[in-house]
Amino acid sequence: MASVLVVTEVNNGAIRESSLELVSFARKVAESSGREVKSLVIGSGVDGIAGEFAGKGGGETLVVDSADAANYNVDVYKKAILAGVEAAGADLVLISNTPQGWDVAPRIAAALDCAFVSDCTNVEASGSSTTFTRRVFNGKLDAQLSVEGTAVASVQPGATEPFAGSADGSTTALDADVSGARAKFVEIKQSESTGIDLTKADVVVSGGRGVGDPDKFAEVIQPLADALGGAMGASRPVVDAGWLPHAHQVGSSGQVVTPKLYVAAGISGAIQHLVGMKGSNFIVAINKDADAPIFEIADVGVVADLFEIVPALTEAANAAKG
Amino acid sequence: MKVMVCLKQVPHQDARLDVNADGTWIQDGNIKFEINSYDTYALEEALKIKDAGEADVVVVSIGPDRVTQALRTALGMGADRAIHVKDDDADLSDTLGCAKILAAIAKEENPDIVFTGFMSDDGNFSAVAPMLAELLDLPSATGVLSVEVGDSLKCERELEGGALEVVELPKPCLAAIQTGANQVRYASLKGIMQAKKKPVDVKTMADLGVSDAGAGAVKAKIEKVYVPPKGDSAEILSGSTDEIVGQLVTKIKELGVL
Ligand SMILES: Cc1cc2nc3c(=O)[nH]c(=O)nc-3n(C[C@H](O)[C@H](O)[C@H](O)COP(=O)(O)OP(=O)(O)OC[C@H]3O[C@@H](n4cnc5c(N)ncnc54)[C@H](O)[C@@H]3O)c2cc1C
Ligand SMILES: Nc1ncnc2c1ncn2[C@@H]1O[C@H](COP(=O)(O)O)[C@@H](O)[C@H]1O
């Protein structure tokens, strides 16, 4: 029987929750396409966590346990995954779209000369055909893709619930040759604290690329943050362009905030921004594009020019304080 | 030293996106295009190496006629040469097909370093770079925010929550550059004038000896693209600016932050 292989991710001695999300998708497609669910755990000293994962729905769990795999290394992981695919007889491979996943997954598809679909939010399968859903144009459109035959897919973390059941599983040591890595891991540098802690603010008012000009942050966005007693945030392009320091960035590669009120002005709502603010209690989005994806998660939306709404709101907020 | 930079031309970030007649991509007839944002940072990394010493920077793009503009801009910024894969069928390739075409070029060019962008702003695939590295059997790193060139290439990869992974790649190697890695320069007037004299080689898949790319080799087929369903989306406020602001103030007061 063909199998769907879940490539798990080990971080700080534990398997990431996103790997259990892969199990949810794997079990669904296994059922609809007559495949078996198998998993792969790569790391050093990972026998114990692999055993646990096998019992949480991972099924037959292959383990590549090697000192070479103590830290993520693209060359080591590629060899381990290719060995896992072969041992599992897998024709569908699921990997989380994380910094490890996006570094190695496309290589697996190239090595197997098979289809690759990245950052999927859904996977459906029937027989040998598999259908994937994913975002394109930074969230402005959705796309549906189909594959006949072997596919490697990376899956967006949070796209589905982690599998919460239990099931029988077992572990099998896989004796893969992962030596000969050329990339050399040096170190992980943790982020330095930068002074501005957006996570403690009750109100965050963020501006995006739609603000259009560095001066406008001081003239338009900061005054609203001040009027509401909050802090000023930003999307990544604002920081990349040097309009504001990185400490203001909200999102997957910035800060994750959960204020009582989040105001997004001139921000389209790409997934990497959304993961940084979707936990906010109340979200107001101001964007001149009615189809902007930010409106999908906002509580209240205003389809208008931010330069009309934000200054007027600042004035009204100041007046309301008396 | 030779540095190859892969550039994709994509719809301008502010272009209006309308789904095309057969519902499989966008209408691209009447919109503006620009160099993929990630690729501008990749090109800047290459030009920084050139500024610091000696490097021959060759930019490569697969795409229709309009791509000439992107290549001219790159030459104006300081790249030395351009290769344009102009081939209607090549344009229909999926990511693996693109990687195969770029690999054929890299085999002819033998660069010490290949830079790509981390992701294309249109398809958001993040696929071509690791595929290209695999096809060329090169070590690689993705999501790269800084590189230090010596005997090897020391890369800082962006992880989540502000952490960075430092990884060293022996040359030849490939790095996929993340936005924000540097301050991208503009093409100067002088640069644009000089660019007119710089060579642009035009090639087809047949010239490169690539047959397993293009429409016939697509493995992941886009069936349809569509505006995402709205779901339980926001309550959209309407009225004059004053009325909208009045409603917002009422809601903000209910939250207890005013
Ligand atoms: C690995 C990775 C990590 C990332 N991390 C982050 C992150 O941490 N944070 C982050 O934000 N992004 C991150 N990104 C980038 C993300 O994919 C998007 O590119 C980015 O969020 C887009 O920012 P934006 O919404 O400001 O710009 P755009 O998408 O360009 O949107 C601008 C918006 O402004 C609107 N607009 C323009 N003018 C006006 C006006 N006058 N009035 C009202 N509206 C107007 C437009 O309609 C548009 O919707 C990451 C990407 C990757 C690949
Ligand atoms: N048609 C193309 N021509 C040249 N380079 C490309 C092309 N498509 C993708 N690339 C390169 O691959 C990177 C990643 O693109 P993608 O995998 O499509 O998200 C881009 O940033 C470019 O550097």
Query: What is the arithmetic mean of pLDDT of chain A?
Result: 96
Order of helices and strands of chain B: EEEHEHEHEHEEEEHEHEEH
Cα gyration radius of chain B (Å) = 21 Å
Instruction: Tell me the count of domains of chain B.
Output: 1
Which helices and strands occur, and which strands form pairs?
The complex is a heterodimer of chains A (322) and B (258).
Chain A: E1 3-7, E2 10-11, E3 14-15, H1 17-33, E4 36-43, H2 47-58, E5 60-65, H3 74-88, E6 90-96, H4 101-112, E7 115-126, E8 129-136, E9 141-148, E10 151-155, E11 170-173, E12 184-189, E13 203-207, H5 214-227, E14 231-234, H6 236-240, E15 261-265, H7 271-274, E16 283-287, E17 300-303, H8 306-321
Parallel strand pairs in A: 1-4, 1-6, 4-5, 5-11, 6-10, 7-10, 13-14, 13-15, 15-16, 16-17
Antiparallel strand pairs in A: 2-3, 7-8, 8-9
Helix pairs in contact in A: 1-2, 3-4, 5-8
Chain B: E1 2-6, E2 9-11, E3 33-35, H1 37-52, E4 56-62, H2 67-77, E5 81-85, H3 95-109, E6 113-117, H4 128-136, E7 140-149, E8 152-158, E9 164-170, E10 173-177, H5 189-195, E11 200-203, H6 205-208, E12 221-226, E13 235-236, H7 241-254
Parallel strand pairs in B: 1-4, 1-6, 4-5, 5-11, 6-10, 7-10
Antiparallel strand pairs in B: 2-3, 7-8, 8-9
Helix pairs in contact in B: 2-5, 3-4
The complex binds flavin-adenine dinucleotide and adenosine monophosphate.
